[in-house]
Amino acid sequence: MKSILYTELASDFLVEGLGLHIQDNSLPVGKVGRSDMELVSTLSELISFPEEIQVLYLGKAEPGPFRAGDVLMAGSDELLDRAFQALDVMEQRGVVVGLSNERDAHQVTLVKDGLYEMVINWKERKIPYLCLFLVEPVDSEGTAKLVGLIRKVLA
Fold first, then answer.
1. Total domains, the chain
2. What is the pLDDT of residues 87-117, one digit of tens each?
3. Which 3 state secondary structure label does DSSP give 46?
4. Which residues, 6 or more positions from 149, have their beta carbon under 8 angstroms from its beta carbon?
5. What is the CATH number of the domain that holds 50?
6. What is the DSSP secondary structure assignment for residue 62, as one 8-state letter?
7. What is the DSSP string of 91-111?
8. What is the pLDDT of residues 20-60, one digit of tens each?
9. Distance CA 120, CA 124 (A)
10. Is 43 helix (H, G, I), strand (E, B) or coil?
């Protein structure tokens, strides 16, 4: 299955860390684990893929009730399970959050412009997805943690 990656983080580190390469002056592509991977540059590109795909979304989250460096996650069951297993092996902490388009004082939610609607679209199309958010400030150690996590999830 092809993995489509979108990131809010600096993509150079991810491209290098995941072993992707730029082919014919286009976006980075490569193979990570058992999965072909393509990095897309805009969120709207995540709607247009006609083939069978899984979506990986990497982003940042404001500290709020979370500690700097925490990994917040939302996703389909199978990919969330793999992420939890990988975090356990890495001895890292992960927190499952709900995605919403408005703040909710009674639930642990993350508000991301446009992402909530995308997730609804992926669920309707039964597209597996995993959204990983690193609580700010984002540094190279945190980005390396996400690269390792993606590699383990896709292994």
1. 1
2. 999 999 899 998 887 776 656 778 887 888 8
3. helix
4. 71, 83, 86, 87, 90, 92, 132
5. 3.40.50.1580
6. -
7. T--EEE-EEESS--TTS-EEE
8. 998 776 889 999 988 899 998 887 787 777 778 999 999 99
9. 6
10. helix
